Amino acid sequence: MLLPLIALLAIAPTESPAAAAQPPTGEEAPAAQLEPAFLDFARAVEKGMNARDGDALDAHLDTEALFKKTIEGVKVRPDFAAGFKQGLQKGTVLGLGKKLVERFDDQSSFTLLRARTLKGVPRALFRTISGAGLNYLDLELSRDATGKVSVVDIYPYTAGEFFSETLRRSFLAAAAETNQGLVDRLMGKEQTYLKNLPRIQAMQQAFQAGKYEEVLRLYGELPASLKNDKTPLFFRLHAASRQSVQGDAYAQAIADYEKALPNDPSLDLVSIDGCLLRKDHAGALRAIDRVDRRARDPYLSVLRGNVMVDKGDSAEARRHYEAAITGEPSLLVAHWSLAGLALQEKQYRELGERLDAIEATGLVQLNDLESVAAYEGFVKSPEYKAWKKRRAAKKRP
User: Fold this and answer.
1) Is residue 192 included in any domain, yes or no?
2) Which of 77, 196, 212, 332 has the lowest tally of Cβ within 10 angstroms?
3) What is the 3-state secondary structure (H, E, C) of the chain?
4) How far apart are the C-alpha atoms of 336 and 201, rounded to whole Å?
5) Are 163 and 304 members of one domain?
6) Where is the signal peptide (predicted)?
7) What are the pLDDT tens digits along the chain (397 aa)?
8) Which of 151, 167, 186 is a domain's end point?
9) What is the CATH number of the domain that holds 67?
10) Is residue 48 part of a domain?
11) Which domain holds residue 179?
C-alpha cells in the first residue's frame, strides 16, 4: 500500500453487501437458478467467518462425501479406510476455517463474490484476504443425509486443486506405508508418486527448514514423469523464489510450472508478486487478468492499480482503483489507495473528497488527522480547513 492509512480507522462492524449477480460463463449458471437455501448458506458462511468463527465453514463440511471422493478407485483394508475416515471426522486433517481465522487481523475479510451452479453442481466462491495474502475458496455444495446444505469439497486457488485431490495424496502415502502391495497394484502416475514419496517428503521437510538448495537438488533427482507433478513443482517454485526472484532458477521454475499446469490458478497468484519483484509490470497484469477470468473480482483492479503505482503511472493507477470501487463500492482498500495517491501527490482537495467517500461507506469513522505525522501537510493546508468545516456541518443534527 502507498501509506499506512488504515491505521487511522476505527472499523465499525457491518455486514458485507450481497453478492452481485454475474453473467454466466460456459456451463456456469447464476444465482437466480440456484436454490435459495444454497445462497442463504453461503451468506451465513460469509457472516460467520467475518465474525472470526472458523466453525462457520468447518462445521458444515460433509466428511462422508469428501472421504468418498478422496479414496475413489483405491482398495485398502477396511480398518485402514475407517481410521482415515475417523481422522477426517475429528478434524485432524482439515479445519481450514479455523486456520484462516488464525491469520485474520483487523483488515482481513472473507467476501462472497457469487453463488451459482457449475455443471449443475451448486458452488459458492469467496475471496479471502488475511495475513497469508489473497486467496479464493470455491466451495462445492450439496445436501447431507439430513437434507441440510453442506460443503462436500473446497477448491483453494492457491492450491489449484480440490481438497479431495490433496487428501488423496496423503491417503495414498499413508496406505503405502501399511500396505506395500498397494504400490504394485496402482498404475501410472500414482505408482510413480508413491515410489518417490521419500524424496517428495524430503523436499517438504527441506523447504520448511529453509534449505532451499536442498529442495532444488531433490527436485533434480526425481524421474522426468514426476517433475511435472504439482507437489514437487510447487516446492521447487517456492524454494527458487525464496533464494532470489532475480535468479535464473526462479524464472525457469515459473516457466516449467506454466508449461506443466498452464491453467492452474495457483501459478497466477504466485506470479503476480514474482513479476512485480522483477519489475515485469506487463507480466504481473497478465497474471492478474488470468486470475480475473476465473474470479471476476473487483479487488483485482486494486492489484492492477498497485502495479501501476510501482511502474510510476499514477493516472492509470487511479483508473484501476476507481474501477474497483465501481465494481464494489464498499471496497475500502480501493478508497484508501486513491486517498494515498492524493496525499502522496499533495492533491489536498482530492484527498478531502476521498476521505468523504471513505466515511460515506458507513464502514469506518476517521480518527483525528491532526495527530498523524503523515497528514501534516494536509492539516496545514486551506483544503483541510474547508474539509474539517464541511465534515463538522454534516455531523450537526
Assistant:
1) no
2) 77
3) CCCCHHHHEEECCCCCCCCCCCCCCCCEECHHHCCHHHHHHHHHHHHHHHCCCCHHHHCCECHHHHHHHHHCCCCCCHHHHHHHHHHHHCCCCCCHHHHHHHCCCCCCEEEEEEEEEECCEEEEEEEEEECCEEEEEEEEEEECCCCCEEEEEEEECCCCCCHHHHHHHHHHHHHHHHCCHHHHHCCCHHHHHHHCHHHHHHHHHHHHCCCHHHHHHHHHCCCHHHCCCHHHHHHHHHHHHHHCCCCHHHHHHHHHHHHHCCCCHHHHHHHHHHHHHCCCHHHHHHHHHHHHHHHCCCHHHHHHHHHHHHHCCHHHHHHHHHHHHHHCCCCHHHHHHHHHHHHHCCCHHHHHHHHHHHHHCCCEEECCHHHCHHHHHHHCCHHHHHHHHHHHHHHCC
4) 43
5) no
6) 1-20
7) 333 333 333 333 333 333 333 333 445 666 667 899 999 999 999 999 999 999 999 999 998 899 889 888 877 778 878 877 777 666 545 688 998 898 898 889 999 999 999 988 999 999 999 876 789 999 999 998 899 999 999 999 988 889 898 888 777 766 765 665 554 555 445 567 767 878 888 888 888 788 999 999 999 999 988 898 888 898 898 788 777 766 788 878 888 888 888 877 688 887 887 788 778 999 999 999 999 999 999 999 999 999 999 999 999 999 999 999 999 999 999 999 999 999 999 999 999 999 999 999 998 888 889 989 999 999 999 999 999 999 888 776 6
8) 186
9) 3.10.450
10) yes
11) 26-186
| Residue 132 dihedral angles phi and psi, to the nearest 5° | -85, 0
Residues 120-128: contacts with CB under 8 Å, at least 24 apart: 122/34, 122/35, 122/38, 124/38, 124/39, 124/41, 124/42, 124/45, 125/295, 126/42, 126/45, 126/46, 126/49, 127/295, 127/297, 127/299, 128/49, 128/100
- Asked whether residue 239 is assigned to any structural domain, the reply reads no
CA atoms within 13 A on the CB side of 65: 15
